Amino acid sequence: MILLDGKTTSQQIKEEIKETVSKMKSHGEKVPHLAAVLVGNDGASLTYVGSKVRSCEYVGFDSTLIRLDENISEEALLEQIDTLNKDNALDGYIVQLPLPKHINEEKILLAIDPKKDVDGFHPANFGRMALELDAFIPATPYGIMQLLERYNVPTSGKHCVVVGRSHIVGRPISILMSQKGAAGNATVTVAHSRTENLADLTRQADIIVMALGIPEYLTADMVKEGAAIIDVGITRVEDDKHPKGYVIKGDVAYDEVAQKASYITPVPGGVGPMTIAMLLKNTLLARQWNK
Amino acid sequence: MILLDGKTTSQQIKEEIKETVSKMKSHGEKVPHLAAVLVGNDGASLTYVGSKVRSCEYVGFDSTLIRLDENISEEALLEQIDTLNKDNALDGYIVQLPLPKHINEEKILLAIDPKKDVDGFHPANFGRMALELDAFIPATPYGIMQLLERYNVPTSGKHCVVVGRSHIVGRPISILMSQKGAAGNATVTVAHSRTENLADLTRQADIIVMALGIPEYLTADMVKEGAAIIDVGITRVEDDKHPKGYVIKGDVAYDEVAQKASYITPVPGGVGPMTIAMLLKNTLLARQWNK
Question: In this predicted complex, what is the ipTM?
Answer without folding.
Answer: 0.96
